[in-house]
Amino acid sequence: MEYSCIGLNNLPDEILMIIFQKLNNIDVLYSFQGVNQRLNKIIHDPIFTSRLSFVKWLSDDFIDLFCFDIMLNRFCLKILPEIHDKIKWLDLESSSMKHVLHAIIYPNLDTLGLYNINEESARSLFIDETLSSGIFKNQITTLITVYNHNDYEKMILSVENIFDKILTVFTRLITFGDLPTLKCFYLSCDRTTYDYNGAILPLLYRMANLEELGLCLTVYVHETFIDGNHLKTNIIDHMPRLNQFTFSIHSFLFIRNEMNFLSTQDIQRTFIDFPNNIISYVEFLPETKQSLCHIYSYPSVMQYYGIITNNFPGGLFEYVRVISLFDEYPFEHDFFLRIQKSFPFMETLSLNNYKSQNDKQSYQSNNDNRNLSLIKYSFLNELYIINVHDDYIKEFLFDTKTCFQNNVDLHIKYESLERVTQNFTRDATRINCAKISKLYTTDSIASSYCPFDQRKQNEFYQSTGDEITKLQQQNFHHLLSNVESTYSSNDNYLSKYTIDDNNSQITIQSIDKQIEELDIHSDQ
Description:
With 524 residues, this protein is of the alpha/beta class. The protein has a domain at 327-357 and 367-479. It has 23 helices and 22 strands. The strands form six sheets. A seven-stranded mixed beta sheet has the order 14-15-16-18-20-21-22. Strands 9-10-11-13-12 form a five-stranded mixed beta sheet. A four-stranded parallel beta sheet has the order 1-4-5-6. Helix 1 (2-9) packs across helix 23 and helix 8 packs parallel to helix 11. The chain is globular and about 60 Å long. Residues 59-64, 174-178, 362-370, 444-478 and 481-524 have low confidence and may be disordered.
């Protein structure tokens, strides 16, 4: 540990900056604040302090990074007071937002993101006299709100009620048009919208003075796709002050007459007069008699990219953290290689495809796969491969095709996992299975949860009845042995990342381990 700490301190500031920028800002501040004056100076740079995001986006929800009180208390009592004047943007989850906002005065904070907010949490936050009369009223000019509501129509009503509260509190918000003080509005919804004309458009028409608008939607339409003509006529022409419009919109259309089927070229021509680079493509889904059109501004600043098919045109999406793949045609290995290159920082991937791969290669050993490119997912920590053909489970679990980092949460059907791993004895799946930290299965063990302690393990064996033999039980435990050990190490996460005189070197070592995996090259 001493050598590790000394080695890190001996690196030049420029190299430390490169290393820290590869890590999460929250981890950097939590791990290195207070270690020594030199590291404090480096991590107090605006790169690490101007925007702090205390939320993480999973496939269908935002979670609070303050999962333990000790972490929240350390930030509120020790870290935020040291950098409070450098913070310009905070992203907060509803359960901890009041604690963070009350921790210290933020004189330069002008942008606030509130995630998983609902009417109850909004009411509690906005009636707070200290916040309402101070930071909300006098400082915040840009407000981002993200709602988590299963009922879409109720969500729209909830949004309007929350807007009413926002208008009475955030008096420096620069515009709203029936809501005439809203300058900036971003709407992202990962659920399909069936009443776009009745719900989305009327909401937008209340904001005639918008200057910035962002939309990330999936909608069903009745007659025509949402294209450039639609956006200009139904949105842009209603917002004379709009100068920045970013969007990613999927529109589904049931095909009644294939003679009227629009092509990608037809859609792309509707964007000729748009000032930004717009990409579009059209996909026909013959099994469901549907057609899909995706239009999006590029480069994209969206964090979610859904419904990616084989016709995905490529590009680099550095901000995207969550993606979903779907098609009625097979995904080959080269497709996943393209996906990894286009979304190098993706953290959550979900896949839906029951079609067997056509280009099957030998999976026996690396010697049999000389021409097969190994795909490295450096940041992936959540994988959903439930509604898939077994070929795609092999795609991700075979070490000749895919390389994970540690601590991956896997969602899968138990029977599929059992088949692909050959009753948990297959060597080709052993390496990647050892990197699974949590295992969520469906079907015969619908509510089973990994990692296992011995008690849970016995319950698991009993719950599966006669389906698993004693030999299979042993193989299962052996193949996924790191599930338990990884969970144990996660249990000790806070002790690793707590800074004090006794364990600061442990912190340095844990970060050093991450640094080794970054493959940073320098001429130094």
